[in-house]
């Protein structure tokens, strides 16, 4: 019996227009009405997850926000912090100093601000179009922007993650170089064609799911999870009902329990009704 559903956001919960479609929202609201607990699990900050929680009525149903790939877990209704793990300030300083040797855009968030070295950095390019990654990141996470001359010197506090914007083709070339010096001290990896991230060591979506729902007596065999990217592999493998979106990377599809339709064609709703057909009859 499925008692919890965990959702990645980009490429999964939202479509190409960054919207939750009416059909998907209805299926998830029905799940909550039937007593199934929901969680959003993303690399995004708490700021970046809250509006999705509002759209899904998390504030009325104790929905769970799994932020920073599992570095922060919050009950959206009570605002209780269930778990938090941050990267030590000295390690963050070392990483930012190291990144000066590459043509990349390091970004650090704190409270309501996104901090970076150059707010006018030239846009990246993705799928033949220009992508203002700074504007995109600040708007999608509801951050104000603050320019810092030298992030490495500025950091004097523990942080949840360092987000790095990189030209996709360039990232293909340097991906291993970016992670190699820190892989034994931080969780490192690519999370999108144009993103590379450094999290606190041991941070993982699958572990976060266990922490978030274990206190409710819900185990992996009672969870359904949806994802599309490489950083979703752990949670898709961990749960009994790991569902890959139709637009997911091949490595995720290979380990998934099932593959549903893509994020532009209500893949989540279709999988929910396929594996929990009784929800179709729930009235909102």
What does this entry look like structurally?
- This protein has 12 helices and 16 strands.
- The two termini are 21 Å apart.
- The chain is α/β, with parallel strands linked by helices.
- It has 2 domains: 4-85 and 203-281, 3-Layer(aba) Sandwich (Rossmann fold), CATH 3.40.50.1000; 89-200, 2-Layer Sandwich (Hypothetical Protein, Haloacid Dehalogenase-like Hydrolase, Chain: A, domain 2).
- A hairpin with a 2-residue loop joins strand 12 (186-192) and strand 13.
- The protein has helices at residues 9-13, 22-33, 46-55, 58-61, 89-99, 133-140, 151-154, 168-179, 205-214, 233-238, 250-255, 267-275; strands at residues 4-7, 37-41, 64-67, 72-75, 81-84, 105-110, 113-116, 124-126, 129-131, 144-147, 161-165, 186-192, 195-200, 223-227, 241-244, 258-259.
- 34% of the residues lie in helices and 25% in strands.
Summed up, what is this model?
The protein is of the alpha/beta class. It has twelve helices and 16 strands.
The CATH architecture designation of the largest domain is 3-Layer(aba) Sandwich
What does the average pLDDT come to? 95
* Count of individual domains: 2
The unreliable regions are: none
Instruction: Determine the CATH superfamily of the largest domain.
Output: HAD superfamily/HAD-like
Structural class: alpha/beta
What gyration radius follows from the Cα positions, in whole Å? 18 Å
CATH class (first level) name of the largest domain: Alpha Beta
């Amino acid at each position: 019996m499925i008692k919890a559903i965990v959702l990645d956001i980009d490429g999964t919960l939202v479509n190409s227009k960054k919207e939750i479609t009416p059909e998907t929202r209805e299926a998830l609201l029905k799940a909550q009405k039937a007593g199934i607990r929901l969680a959003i699990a993303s690399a995004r900050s708490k700021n970046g997850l809250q509006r999705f929680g509002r759209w899904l009525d998390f504030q009325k149903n104790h929905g769970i926000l799994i932020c920073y790939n599992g570095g922060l877990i919050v009950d959206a209704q009570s605002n209780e912090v269930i778990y938090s793990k941050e990267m030590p300030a000295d390690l963050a300083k070392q990483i930012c100093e190291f990144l000066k040797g590459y043509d990349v855009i390091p970004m650090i968030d704190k409270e309501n601000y996104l901090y970076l070295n150059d707010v006018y950095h030239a846009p990246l390019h993705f799928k033949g179009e220009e992508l203002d990654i700074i504007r995109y990141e600040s708007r999608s996470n509801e951050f104000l922007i603050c320019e810092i001359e030298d992030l490495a010197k500025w950091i004097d506090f523990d942080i949840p993650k360092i987000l790095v914007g990189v030209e996709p083709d360039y990232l293909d070339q340097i991906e291993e170089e970016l992670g190699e010096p820190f892989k034994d001290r931080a969780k490192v990896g690519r999370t999108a064609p144009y993103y590379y991230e450094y999290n606190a060591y041991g941070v993982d979506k699958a572990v976060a799911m266990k922490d978030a729902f274990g206190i409710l007596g819900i185990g992996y065999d009672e969870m359904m999870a949806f994802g599309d990217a490489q950083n979703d592999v752990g949670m898709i493998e961990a749960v009994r009902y790991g569902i890959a979106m139709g637009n997911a990377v091949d490595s995720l599809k290979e380990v998934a329990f099932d593959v549903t339709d893509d994020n532009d064609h209500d893949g989540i709703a279709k999988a929910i009704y396929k594996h929990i057909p009784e929800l179709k009859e729930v009235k909102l």
